[in-house]
Amino acid sequence: MRVCVIGTGYVGLVTGVCLAHAGHHVICVDNNEEKVKLMQAGQSPIYEPGLSDLMQAAIASQHIQFTSDLAAGVSHGEVLFIAVGTPALPTGESDTRYIESVARGIGAHLDQDYKVIVNKSTVPIGSGDWVRMIVLDGVNERRKAANGGDNDAAPLAVDFDVVSNPEFLREGSAIYDTFNPDRIVLGSSSDRAVGIMKTLYDPIVRRELADDKSLPPVPVLVTDISSAEMVKYASNAFLATKISFINEVANICDRVGADVTQVAKGIGLDSRIGSKFLQAGLGWGGSCFPKDVSALIHTAHDYGYEAEILKAAVNVNERQRLLTVEKLQQVLKILKGKTIGLLGLTFKPDTDDMRDAPSLKMIEALNRLGAKVKAYDPIVSQSGLSSGLSGVIVEADAEFLADGCDALVLVTDWKQFQGLDFARMAKLMNNPIIIDGRNFLDRKALEQLGFQYVGIGR
């Protein structure tokens, strides 16, 4: 099938490349000319394991193109994905101006061929009808312009439907998640549009690209548009709340002498609960959980309901980000004049995403308390992204980080951190203290090397 993906951020680029790998002919559109040139040269503007290889293969097979020409993309696509950002505003609601701009642009270039316009971006509940209205506004603006501003000119013939198709991609596992989804959600009142979307996703539904091709077909849930939009928000809100819950339990464990890792294992074995998202630590961050939970709280408020559980999840998460600073104060007492080393900066491993990362709040708090802050991150240290960070010295490797530190804090659970030469690092430190903000390292091994180990809820 012919596909157009508008917006080549994290969701758009992964979606476009994976659909091209599935055999579809994809044009990705972005208004950033430099970014388009980079992608045309086969270079991914984001870090995601496996993405660059798939992208280069799709370019070589001529299944994917990159352009800044929206008209060309709209003309090419039978299915048009809107995959632009919807960042959170200070009020907590989603900023939909990029969605509006793209929808209006699509309307300005629609022809008589039937199109399926897909909201892949996470959009406020009820956006399906709104997007349709904006597309038609774009169509009417083109009609008026073509007729010298005459409002009474005959309407242009266009034929399209809007579908909500939320994404459930985890940064660092996005390729796997695309080819091995738990479910595909399609929100639409049009049987025609749903049929086209099922055809588009057929290779994925039939597990042609899955790691385990013997699994049953991927469930496809067809709903109304508003319900599909709510599925996305409710999924992320539930997972964020589950993380905040286990962090709340961890903080109680700290006070009563229990070990949250054992508690989490015990409750996770209950099939009604499950073990996923029960890892206590520094809380959630990134581009999805914070803005989606805030947007759902804001939507509830708009409709006269206060989402108290979600508000509590946010409050617990905000407090959790500074828990390691409190633990540093308990161990070192005065932090002014001390040097603190952060192992990891990104909000999770296997990504270069620093959006709403817990490390940023920690750096800010440590600076305010007069500490010198250093950091090492496998991606940030090598990619040049550190140029946008203030209040922290980004080191080139873990041993440079440890040199002269009064304590280390594990912030991001990068797998390679488990293989660091901690014996060497301990000798380079002023005080061999480590705060394990993810309960990720081998406590006994570190203590045998002379480290004072402090975990979360342990």
Would you mind describing this structure in some detail?
The chain has about 450 residues and is α/β, with parallel strands linked by helices. It folds into 3 domains: about 1-225, 3-Layer(aba) Sandwich (Rossmann fold); about 230-320, N-(1-d-carboxylethyl)-l-norvaline Dehydrogenase, domain 2, CATH 1.10.1040; about 320-455, NAD(P)-binding Rossmann-like Domain (Rossmann fold, 3-Layer(aba) Sandwich). The protein contains 19 helices and 14 strands. It has helices at about 10-20, 35-40, 50-60, 70-75, 95-110, 125-145, 175-180, 190-200, 200-205, 225-255, 260-270, 290-300, 310-320, 325-330, 360-370, 380-385, 400, 420-430, 445-450; strands at about 1-5, 25-30, 65, 80, 115-120, 160-165, 185, 220-225, 340-345, 370-375, 395, 405-410, 435, 450-455. The strands form 3 sheets. It has a 6-stranded parallel beta sheet with strand order 3-2-1-4-5-6, sandwiched between helices. A 6-stranded parallel beta sheet has the order 11-10-9-12-13-14. A two-stranded parallel sheet has the order 7-8. Strand 10 (about 370-375), helix 16 (about 380-385) and strand 11 form a beta-alpha-beta unit. The radius of gyration is 24 Å and the shape is elongated. The termini are far apart.
